[in-house]
Amino acid sequence: MWIKELWHKLGSPRWFYQISSPWIIGFGVAALVLLTVGVVWGLVYAPQDYQQGNSFRIMYVHVPAAMVSQSVYLGMGVAGFVLFVWRMKLADVAIAACLPFGIMLTALALFTGGVWGRPTWGTWWEWDGRTVSTLVLLFLYIGIYALREAILDTELRGRASALVAMVGTINIPIIKYSVDWWSTLHQPASITLTDKPTMPPEMWMPLLVMVLGIYCFAAHNIMSRMRVEILNRESKTRWVRNLMVTDTKPIQNV
Predict the structure, then answer these.
(1) Half-sphere exposure of 30 (CA within 13 A, CB side)
(2) Residue pair 113/135 in contact by the 8 Å Cβ criterion
(3) Using CA atoms in the order 62, 65, 70, 73, what is the torsion angle rounded to 10 degrees?
(4) Taking a C-beta distance cutoff of 8 angstroms, is the pair 219, 35 a contact?
(5) Deepest in the core among 59, 125, 169, 240, taking most CB within 10 A?
(6) d(CA 185, CA 62)
(7) Apex CA 38: angle with CA 94 and CA 42, to 5°?
(8) How far is the C-alpha of 55 from the C-alpha of 48, rounded, in Å?
């Protein structure tokens, strides 16, 4: 019974707005701490790679950006499914909030990959499976964003972007397994859930901290954007008008 009640609450933008503020603060603080520790640890204290020297340190930005950009898109795919099946308004809000952050993070992953590839491979760009499939991910993000900007009808816009988001999730396993399916310059994953890391602890531990930090930053950013999107969409409702009146009410001198 409580699961059904919670499910109905999750579809309420007002309910999300009311409960999300502490979570946003928590994720923001966690992101600040983790990213500060991860950057200092990875750039200053982690040892040099025996082959790549100091150039390998770009992985502390590149790898988390690539991982989280894929996770954000998977989240969009799940939100698209929820919107397509149950037509929850909050799912469409989530898609709209994920897009700008996903575009930024995927572009960062491609850029840092080029910066890393230049001294390592001798080229800024290589048309291998993982690079191309990540570029496709960026095009999917931009395409959905453009689609939403082009369609004025709210319901049609939501269902169209949800459909593309769901279909686009096919690209995520292609990115992950491209190093196994095709000949590529990219190395297999150094850290997996089932195997022992191929890097020493003093190198993979700051990477793990950076990954967790970027995930927390993603949660902070997306939830903050969702709150803004909710206020824009619900601006004519009574609860938002009351909220605006409360926030703008001058403080009385005691």
Answers:
(1) 18
(2) no
(3) -150
(4) no
(5) 59
(6) 15
(7) 130
(8) 8
pTM: 0.91
Render pLDDT for 207-220 as a digit per residue (tens, 0 to 9): 999 999 999 999 99
Residue with tokens 């909030």: 97
Percentage of the chain with pLDDT > 70?
89
| β-sheet bridge partners, residue 49 | 53
Q: Which two tokens stand for residue 224?
A: 């903050």
Beta bridge partners of 27: none
Cα–Cα dist 110/65, whole Å: 9
Quote the CA–CA distance of 243 and 154 in Å, as a whole number.
24
Q: How many CB atoms are closer than 10 A to CB 86?
A: 11
Least Cα distance to 10 among 129, 91, 103 occurs for 91
Residue 191 near residue 183 (C-beta atoms within 8 A) = no
Provide the pLDDT confidence category of residue 252 given band limits of 50, 70 and 90.
very low
| Torsion sign across C-alpha atoms 53, 202, 110, 181 | positive
